[in-house]
Amino acid sequence: MTRLSIIVVTYNSIGVIERCLEALVRHPPTVGHEVVVVDNASADETASGVRGGWPGVRVVDAGANLGFARASNLGIRQTSGELVLLLNPDTAVRAGALDALIRVIDARPDVAVIGPRLLDEHGRPELSFGSMIGPWAELRQKALVIGSQRGVPLARAYVCRLTARPREVDWVSGACLLVRRADADAVGLMDERYFLYAEDVDFCAAIRARGRTVLFTPAAEVVHLRGRSAASMPAAAETAYRRSQLAFYAKHHPRWEPWLRAYLKFRGRLPDMPIDPPGRSRQ
Known about the structure:
This protein has 283 residues and is of the alpha/beta class.
């Protein structure tokens, strides 16, 4: 019986997907599970490489580059586990991590979403959760993340303290996010207006709006090679981030959205592609 569905969305991920799948095979959960790779029309050999090298993994061809939210939703609809794990291809689960996540969520019926402690390749913790995105929360999050990455002692020490104990949070990173299928279905899955970035925060916000809990736990650890994909396409990543940022503010902070748009235009960073209006259907 399949209890856990593991969904990995890929796009030109040949350089990292092998490590991700290898870790899943080396450190599998003890519950019945399936692994599904949803490939966003990679131009490299991601899909064929997974099919040829990993017979136990099912590959779903998205047919185009759908972005993270739409591809994740496609994977969720194509699977059946009571629990769904969204996992980035640039991650590697550590021994016991998946069982720890399941054990914690089983012990907390109020918890709908749970995220692990993410570590960089040097074993340093990432700030993989936070408060609801808003002007000040976003500035604080960026300052801590950048400060920690650059080795600023106070920032790194604070991130280590924040990630040392479990806590109820507004959102956890979609790089590794475990959700109960019933809760994901109840909010209509992920909002597909987000091509890349902010979809995890929005998803958690929708789930919390139903009175459910989002939890961060250090009991499970997952290595995350943060930013590898974005580093290969910085201009595209910047455009995707700004589009998602505008869509998020239009939906959650409509009074701030014109100010954000004006600021981005002044900085020469306003994306030229239109943003769908907040009233559009989620699917």
